[in-house]
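Pipeline run #58 for the internal structure catalog. This entry was flagged by the ingest filter as a single-chain record with no existing model, so it goes straight to prediction. Upstream metadata was stripped on purpose; only the residue string is passed forward. Reviewer on rotation: M.T. Logging verbosity set to normal.
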Amino acid sequence: MRLFILFSLLTSFKALAHPVSFKDAIGVMSYNSSQMNELMVTYSLSSQMALGHTYIREKKSEFYIPRVNFLARRWYNENSQGNLYLSAGSGLEKYASKNSNVHLGAVVADWESRKHYVYLEHLYMLRDNQDNPLWLQRDDNHSKVRAGFAPFLADYKDLNVWFIAQLTKHNDETAQATQFLRFYMKNTLWEIGADFNGGFAFNFMIHI
């Protein structure tokens, strides 16, 4: 019974950042920084699979990519939960009024309790477009590592606060460190952050 109660709490508000949620759930996730803007909308066909669409704007290119997200595996411990997600999609890159093909693959792994949180993500895009002078790589790799903790425990219906540290790496560019304050209440989560170069970041997630 204790494990069931904990699982209910975790999946009700911690799963907000996950690419697959409960059956028939609609998710809206927006990630924004000075380098990249991303919006993903998902519809979960089941607790294992979701259909989605991703919009990304980066280096003056725009990407429109339908995708499928899978929950590959989930681990339960007495006081924590781990997840492994796989995602694949294919769509268009728009640059200077020209459209070209782009393919996407992603792997996401996380582990979380009510007190601690670890998140790993690798996003890969294979781009046909090589006309953008700001972005000559056809193979595009984004890696993200996050770790966080809650300074206090709050009820699901109350405002929850977390401190999050994030490290991102894009191709051969210098890794970027960002610190976030995460807030969530019920089915809504938002994060406000800043990197060490003065750049601003804002993320927003909701499931209905």
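catalog note: The chain is about 5% helix and 65% strand.
catalog note: The radius of gyration is 17 Å.
status: ready for reviewer M.T.
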